[in-house]
Amino acid sequence: xxxxxxxxxxxxxxxxxxxxxxxxxxxxxxxxxxxxxxxxxxxxxxxxxxxxxxxxxxxxxxxxxxxxxxxxxxxxxxxxxxxxxxxxxxxxxxxxxxxxxxxxxxxxxxxxxxxxxxxxxxxxxxxxxxxxxxxxxxxxxxxxxxxxxxxxxxxxxxxxxxxxxxxxxxxxxxxxxxxxxxxxxxxxxxxxxxxxxxxxxxxxxxxxxxxxxxxxxxxxxxxxxxxxxxxxxxxxxxxxxxxxxxxxxxxxxxxxxxxxxxxxxxxxxxxxxxxxxxxxxxxxxxxxxxxxxxxxxxxxxxxxxxxxxxxxxxxxxxxxxxxxxxxxxxxxxxxxxxxxxxxxxxxxxxxxxxxxxxxxxxxxxxxxxxxxxxxxxxxxxxxxxxxxxxxxxxxxxxxxxxxxxxxxxxxxxxxxxx
Length: 418
Prior knowledge:
The chain is of the alpha+beta class. It has 14 helices and 14 strands. α10 runs parallel beside α13 (about 380-405).
């Protein structure tokens, strides 16, 4: 029968549809979650773990990047570092074997030839046992010259630093780091005392003020001796590196090229690596940014696994509520409303899991900062936003297939389902 151009069937369907509000459908969706608390909690946990992993891993990556940049920045902006050997054969820090030694004569040639060089400090490094009376301990040993203090900005606590003498002279004097001096001498002033370092009798002429760690060297726990003495004590023929501080940052590139040309001429081949602070920071920054993205992607994989868990939960939920879906259709709920109800259910799980994951991740980052205070671990904003958006997206995407399956159920068959 037609009234005013509208059939009575269409009018009845419209009336039934209007009786089903979105609020009713949301109650239907939440009822499914409350009915299976354990399964819902496990799905929430899967999403939370994925988001927390992204937050913590990216915070670690950003923290490592910040630490490296801070360490190189602590050197100053005008520092050039000369390493023996090429990085492709010896590694970034010149630890492997090299064709030619980096020598004190090379250091002297740089001092004499490079006008932009303000301070030139040769370094030889190793570890030895330091002893005073019955007290003894292993610590890092740096052989260098008086210009090391100015090149690295070291502060004297008591006494004096290495004397300004000929670098080729071997003398038995030593400067101790703050911690090393405290552990061997307590509150007593060590200046003038005789200690033994690697079997050598050394006279303490000074101690450093608290310095902390710079470029991987803990200057609070170190023994500094004349470079020639260090080469003999540690049985080294090559320097570990040469540190040059130039007068101005604008001199860096010119000085770097002149130093390279000089050493190539002396060694008759290019067998050294010359680093500047800017280049090292850029290189390490790029490497660690890539690493951060990789670990973020690894963390995101767990979100995909959580999405599969949500899909399985939804499939089981729809199977158990087939008759309810049939009843909704019978009273006029449209396909779009049913689809929306189940998508809301999936989105709630993923959103709640994402928020919980952010909280867990934040707590994890705080713990990292407490355990490793030198590591400025902070999750980048992009990672936090991306993790939350992806977690919600995963829930909707993986919940779509089960939700669409629910919309295609035949009302009559669904009502007869047992």
